[in-house]
Amino acid sequence: MEHKRLKIFRSYWLECLTYMPIKVFIGLWSIVLSVYIYTLVLSRPIPLLYLIVGIVTGLVVWVFFEYVMHRFLFHLRLRSRLGQSFLFIMHGNHHVSPRDRYRNLMPAVVSVPLTIGLYYLYCTIMGPLFGRPFFLGFLCGYVLYDGWHYATHQYCFSNRILKSVQRHHLQHHYYDPDRNYGVTCPWMDRIFGTICKITRKR
């Protein structure tokens, strides 16, 4: 079922920049990850221990980053009109039209510059030997997160575990937007006390 698309900008070109079709997402990040892994493992070898520890650490950090970003940035309360407009463009529109398949993924105009910036930040802070494998784990975490986020809004799952994780995020949209911030890791909400408690009527 096709859902009505929310119009954010009057300009056709600006409006297009807010879209990210799933085929473009898969193509873009498949290329980025393939090239990055090639340069990391083959062109500029890194010791196996650094590689494994860096990737695992990057994935773990992503889990916390995902939760903190969603809770404290995407749902930030701002009073100024400019601030509210910024947050609406960044995330609020998704709550108005959560099943818009072109806006379930982070648009490239945001994700690509952010990816480049974080890469240089991590390599500067940690050094390239650890920072580069760390960034690979972090980037894989992001791609899995965004892909799963798309799936939660566009597909129905029969698998019990997947269905439970999907339900967790949909409750954030349809029951309480101030709960259930973890998209890929629902247990983060249990740790930080932001789990959605639905009272069923008898």
Automatic annotation (TrEMBL):
Record's bilayer topology term: Multi-pass membrane protein
Required cofactor(s): Zn(2+)
Gene Ontology CC: one annotated term: membrane
Domain of life: Bacteria
Presence of the UniProt keyword rRNA processing in the record: no
Annotated Fatty acid hydroxylase domain residues: 56-194
A Pfam cross-reference name: FA_hydroxylase
GO BP term, pick one: fatty acid biosynthetic process
Xref: InterPro entries: Fatty_acid_hydroxylase, Scs7
Transmembrane segments: 21-42, 48-69, 105-122, 134-151
GO terms of molecular function: fatty acid 2-hydroxylase activity; iron ion binding
Keywords: Endoplasmic reticulum, Fatty acid biosynthesis, Fatty acid metabolism, Lipid biosynthesis, Lipid metabolism, Membrane, Metal-binding, Oxidoreductase, Transmembrane, Transmembrane helix, Zinc
EC number(s) recorded for this UniProt protein: 1.-.-.-
Name of the featured protein: Fatty acid 2-hydroxylase
Source species of the chain: Acetobacter pasteurianus subsp. pasteurianus
